[in-house]
Design goal:
seven-stranded mixed sheet, 45% helix, binds zinc ion, 350 residues
């Protein structure tokens, strides 16, 4: 049952950043990332009917005067983001439901984005420009972008976040995607591999930030999920999932022989099968998101944030020159520590 719940949460959590040369050092084939022109950019410049009434909402809607105003007739501009209000999604969910969903998220978004900026203080361009966020709950670009369903993406080429699925799914993934924006566009951290890019995004979103967005939906767990996670030592007394424990536990699962043959989503962007070779001789590119984030937490604890953030371009073969130990040695030391930590914290892995 644990794997079933984990799989459900994982699917919910899937998110990608399109980074040039994203994959790490493994032998896997590289994904062919085709980035079609965004829907809005290729549309004619016709404007919505002048007589069309503005939707009734307390959101500060303004008319979009850009050339994608047919698909995105309105904008909501906040300190940290420019939201493109999707006509298709308003039709899909109903205008009032769509706008109410955004309205309830906005204060959390602003708080979380400000929180994430603080993590990167000293590394960022000043000021940080508001990020462009597009919803695509109608999934018109989703599969075209990634080849398969994902929760959200940050697309570096035009510095846009696309949110897929629903507002709940957006709440799950948005801070992770915003971390990609900060770390790959607003800072020069040398991120070239999925291991560091995805590890950093999950580490910042779930270890360093309050992440009020994901807490607002309790990681997307329903009542049964909460009961199960609570019984496994992953929730507090109130039934709120504790993100760090969740990551410790999920990472530990990757180092238990019982889970050989299980599928997981790797930082390389592939669904992979857990094999003995990865347990014994780990490759950065075959690590899970959970491992990359939790391992980064371990590195920061032992070597300091400045050292880790200054070496986010480290290749597997260069680990020893930065950390004094080769990647395999250090990663397996961490894995053993993580298993012991789970036991000490009462996290049940069965
Ligand atoms: Zn990502």
């Amino acid at each position: 049952m644990l794997r079933k719940i984990i799989a459900a949460v994982l699917i919910f959590a899937m998110c990608l950043a399109f980074v040039s040369g994203c994959a790490g050092n493994g032998d896997e084939p590289q994904p062919e990332i085709i980035e079609p022109e965004p829907q809005g950019q290729v549309e004619p410049t016709e404007k919505p009917e002048e007589t069309e009434p503005m939707p009734e909402t307390s959101l500060p809607l303004i008319k979009n005067e850009g050339n994608n105003s047919v698909s995105y007739p309105y904008l909501v501009c906040t300190d940290n983001a420019t939201w493109y209000i999707s006509k298709a999604d308003m039709e899909l969910l109903g205008e009032s439901e769509y706008l109410a969903g955004l309205e309830s998220m906005l204060p959390l978004v602003e708080a979380d984005f400000t929180d994430a900026q603080a993590v990167f203080e000293g590394y960022l361009t000043d000021p940080v420009p508001p990020v462009d966020i597009y919803t695509d709950f109608s999934a018109k670009t989703e599969v075209a972008q990634s080849g398969r369903p994902v929760g959200a993406i940050y697309r570096m080429s035009d510095r846009r976040i696309y949110l897929y699925g629903s507002w709940a799914q957006a709440s799950f993934t948005l801070l992770h995607e915003y971390t990609h924006y900060l770390s790959m566009t607003c800072a020069d951290l040398g991120l070239k591999s999925g291991f560091w890019a995805e590890g950093l995004a999950d580490y910042v979103a779930h270890f360093l930030c309050e992440n009020s967005l994901v807490r607002s939906i309790n990681f997307g767990l329903d009542e049964n999920g909460v009961a199960f996670f609570k019984a496994h030592g992953l929730c507090d007394e109130e039934g709120n999932i504790e993100p760090k424990k969740y990551y410790y536990g999920e990472s530990a699962q990757m180092h238990r022989a019982e889970n050989l043959g299980q599928q997981y989503f790797a930082v390389s962007g592939y669904t992979m099968t857990l094999r003995e070779s990865q347990m014994q001789h780990p490759l950065m590119s075959s690590a899970s998101y959970f491992e990359a984030a939790t391992f980064m937490d371990y590195l920061v604890e032992n070597y300091g944030k400045d050292t880790v953030f200054a070496h986010l371009d480290t290749r597997q073969e260069d680990f020893e020159s930065v950390y004094g130990k080769d990647f395999e040695t250090l990663f397996l030391e961490w894995a053993q520590y993580d298993l012991e930590l789970c036991e000490a914290l009462g996290i049940k892995l069965d």
